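Why does residue order matter? Because the sequence determines the fold. Keep that principle in mind as you read this record.
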Amino acid sequence: MAEYLYCIINRTKLNGFPEEGIEGGRPYALPYHDLCAIASEVPLKDYEPTDDNVARHKDVELCLLKEHTVLPVAFGMVFRTKGILVNTMRNVYPILKRSLRLIDNKIELGVKVVAPKEGKDVKEDIPLDTGIPQEMTQAVKEEDFAVLDRIVVEVRRGELFSDRLLYNKSFLVDKRDIEKFSEEVERLGQKYKECKIKYSGPWPPYNFVDIRIMGRRR
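Structure:
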């Protein structure tokens, strides 16, 4: 058996601990100094990012996010033994600490604005690979959405991968500001009723930290 790594948290009393992870393994906390690696025992192999595997990985992180600051780890990090995992944490300890300080008491929220398909009700859950009415191409004014940037700690602009995707950003938000941020998103939704605003989260800060500690098959 090997150890599959989900995320890193500060060493503290664990609340709301998840019961099942990859391959049905029960997640546990492996401490190192003032940190804990959240891992579970799995067969030693490469794990494909199937829908089920990715969902189980994210479910563990989301369960912990309710009570803890979660430093997400890239999918598929597997260590041959607990000793190797602890030794790896020792080697990258300064990076882990710095990353946790950056995201302490913060979560990620996402906002997308999708133009409706011509002739369709905006409330439909419409796919993004269909056409966009010509008059909608300039529908979203950046200055209207700038209020969101002013509330948050950091912003990442996402790719506009469809003609109908007019706005796509991820936000690193202090937990104390979630309600204020949500109110502004709701206000923008009222102003842009002709569009569909997709508001997602809270998530671990996937777009603001990238921890790849070379665990696969170590």
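Residues 119-138 have pLDDT under 50 and may be disordered.
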